[in-house]
Predict the structure.
Amino acid sequence: MAGAAKGVAAFKVIAEPTDLPEPLAEPGVDELRLETVLGALSDPLRLTIVRKLLLESEDFDHSCGWFGLDRPKSSLTHHFKALREAGVTRQRQYGLERRSHVRVDDLNARFPGLLDLVAAWTPQGRRAAAGLGPGAP
């Protein structure tokens, strides 16, 4: 178990399969910047994506359809790209599909405890969790 936030079930890290495509362009571990990572996580939808990957992953990586988000594909593409470019997630291309997973080892090495905070975060209301604005039921 990787995460151990107080009062939250620990998140699991699924072992990386051996036959994966190369990851898309991303910053190296030494290039991860706290302000960039926090900027990517400042959006409630992106925070929801990362939290879901940490707590509910069934496979090593997941396509955007797995998340069940009611958003246009272009909007989701933007959010997944922002997470990848910040170094929060790693994406691989499988034919026409991109799949993502959280860079747990890299983020824990650079920012210990950050992913525990993400896993412990609780969205406020259904619409807020979907990134649709504050105060929504």
User: Anything to note?
Assistant: The CA atoms of residues 62 and 99 lie 5 Å apart.
